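Researcher: Quick test of sequence recovery. Tokens follow.
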């Protein structure tokens, strides 16, 4: 995980760990501003923003990360510190992006310096908040994903036999967060630095271009907004859990099962919350209990968090009779023998969206049957399969989608491609798909078949996995399986117009064969950090063949080609290389006719 390496490089790992441990012990934080404005924290924030693709999106001042890159480290630190002495955020740029239902979602894009400031605050607030967050909240949190939320719901249905679900939809959540209440929640979480709270308040009230200063809401698009939103709804999580799952009893039980057996004899409402951002479910055992939860949650949201629910989208469902929808999946408790098990699929809205997008991409290939467009289609299919392959009925769902689109695909592509069973497909195709399905070959690239997908079992997250403890970091490094399929899908989107198809294909194959690991450091590489090096450089008559390519971390690649001494020193310090790694790098440099490094 590259973020952990950056923490080490800027000496912030110990600081974040200490904040997390103090927060776990209900500590209070009155001097956070010193950490926020520390040189190391500012430079870490700058590097994090710089590595984000969104850094190339301009705010209302028209500036991007390219305008900041020219500054020295010291200049950036002084710039941020000076800005925070009397912080006044610039206007937020308003952008609208289309939603699947045809409506538009408003995003707020802060100026680049304000984004760096927000990242400085996020880095310091996140370990404190993470220590206080409820364990079954999964949205916008480190090492957690939608699949963990789906796995938790499946577990509650399969093992706890909870077949009633309370679906609550918060009306315009991000636009209606109460600012005063949020600041109080931060205070109750132990954040007692008044200067920090004052600056966060100013961030929330930053003027939006063409709309004025907001009196409520956390604008989507801001760096800090997802964390603040989770802080708002953490009160709901803890309240629901405190009613049953985490209810404190006077008698101490050895096992939770024994505690719950005793609680069932009381008048408490049995219910378990699973939340992903503002989308949450409460699973219950019977209709009467579900009704109680529905009204209790509605009252809590209105009275405590000043939020309203959408009555037309909020409901109680019997999963034995009807499907619930969660994060693009359908969920139902289907009969299997003498018990009920979870059946999950793809919801209708998402299916229509998939069909529409697939047709759009096929039309693009017909108009321009290039290898790049074929690879972009493959990236889309691989990402779809990777997201939905935790559905128990994913194979059936995608087979139906493929059948519905078959005629459209054939009629649009028969004149620009060859329809066949893949013969001698490239390694990446062979890794993810079988040759049993006919598909089109466009510009020597086989299109990935929509129908050919296998189910992966959705697994509950190990609650010990967190970047904020030593044990958690070890688990991340040792046990977390890198998602090669997802990263390959992202790599396929790369636009490298000067590279040959052979290079593009062998780059993907090499990455896949090496399980996404840097061939010098051995660390797993996310797509944004992947560089592909020619072992024998092209200017020395090297080619794009598989055996001449090497998958490297981008900073390692820069070090191999670096000539300036200060650049070499900075990269060596950042990478924390061993003597053996330096020897390998020198072998690469020698092949490039470059001077060896000490």
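Model:
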């Amino acid at each position: 995980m590259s973020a952990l390496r950056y923490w080490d490089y800027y000496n912030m790992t110990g600081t974040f760990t200490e904040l997390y441990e103090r927060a776990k012990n209900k500590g209070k934080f009155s001097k956070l501003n010193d950490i926020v404005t520390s040189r190391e924290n500012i430079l870490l924030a700058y590097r994090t923003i710089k590595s984000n693709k969104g850094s190339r999106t301009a705010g209302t001042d028209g500036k991007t990360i390219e305008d900041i890159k020219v500054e020295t480290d010291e200049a950036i630190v002084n710039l941020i510190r000076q800005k925070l002495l009397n912080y006044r955020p610039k206007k937020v740029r308003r952008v609208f992006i289309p939603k699947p239902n045809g409506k538009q979602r408003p995003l707020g894009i802060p100026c680049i310096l304000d984004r760096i400031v927000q990242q400085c605050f996020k880095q310091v607030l996140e370990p404190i908040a993470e220590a206080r967050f409820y364990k079954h909240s999964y949205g916008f949190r480190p090492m957690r994903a939608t699949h963990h939320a789906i796995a938790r719901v499946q577990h509650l249905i399969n093992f706890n036999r909870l077949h009633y679900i309370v679906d609550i939809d918060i009306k315009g959540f991000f636009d209606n967060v109460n600012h005063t209440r949020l600041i109080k929640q931060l205070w109750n979480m132990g954040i007692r630095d008044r200067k920090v709270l004052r600056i966060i308040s100013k961030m929330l009230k930053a003027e939006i271009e063409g709309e004025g200063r907001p009196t409520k809401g956390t604008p989507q698009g801001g760096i800090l907004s997802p964390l603040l939103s989770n802080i708002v709804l953490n009160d709901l999580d803890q309240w629901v859990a405190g009613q049953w799952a985490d209810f404190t009893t006077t008698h101490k039980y050895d096992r939770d099962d024994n505690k719950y057996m005793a609680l069932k004899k009381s008048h408490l409402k049995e219910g378990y919350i699973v939340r992903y951002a503002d989308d949450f479910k409460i699973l219950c055992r019977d209709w009467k209990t579900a009704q109680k939860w529905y009204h209790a949650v509605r009252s809590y949201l209105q009275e405590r968090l000043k939020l309203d629910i959408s009555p037309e989208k909020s409901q109680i469902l019997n999963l034995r009779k009807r499907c619930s929808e969660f994060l693009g999946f359908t969920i139902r408790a289907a009969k299997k023998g003498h018990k009920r098990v979870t059946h999950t699929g793809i919801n209708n809205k998402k299916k229509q969206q998939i069909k529409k997008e697939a047709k759009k991409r096929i039309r693009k290939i017909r108009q321009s049957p290039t290898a790049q467009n074929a690879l972009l289609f493959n990236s889309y299919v691989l990402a779809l399969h990777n997201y939905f392959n935790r559905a128990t009925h994913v194979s059936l769902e995608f087979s139906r989608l493929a059948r519905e689109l078959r005629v459209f695909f054939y009629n649009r592509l028969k004149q620009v491609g060859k329809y066949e069973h893949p013969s001698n497909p490239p390694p990446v195709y062979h890794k993810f798909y079988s040759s049993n399905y006919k598909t089109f070959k466009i510009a020597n690239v086989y299109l990935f078949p929509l129908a050919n997908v296998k189910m992966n079992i959705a697994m509950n997250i190990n609650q010990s996995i967190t970047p904020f403890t030593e044990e958690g970091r070890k688990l991340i490094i040792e046990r977390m399986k890198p998602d090669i399929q997802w990263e390959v899908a992202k790599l396929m989107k790369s636009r490298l117009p000067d590279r040959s198809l052979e290079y593009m294909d062998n780059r993907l194959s090499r990455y896949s064969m090496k399980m996404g690991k840097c061939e010098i450091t051995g660390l797993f590489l996310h797509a944004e950090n992947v560089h592909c090096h020619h072992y024998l450089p092209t200017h020395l008559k090297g080619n794009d063949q598989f055996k001449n390519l090497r998958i490297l971390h981008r900073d390692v690649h820069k070090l191999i080609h670096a000539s300036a001494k200060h650049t070499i020193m900075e990269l060596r310090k950042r990478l924390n290389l061993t003597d053996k790694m330096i020897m390998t790098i020198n072998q690469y440099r020698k092949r490039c006719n470059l001077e060896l490094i000490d």
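The chain has four domains: 1-131, 132-178+216-346, 348-446, 480-592.
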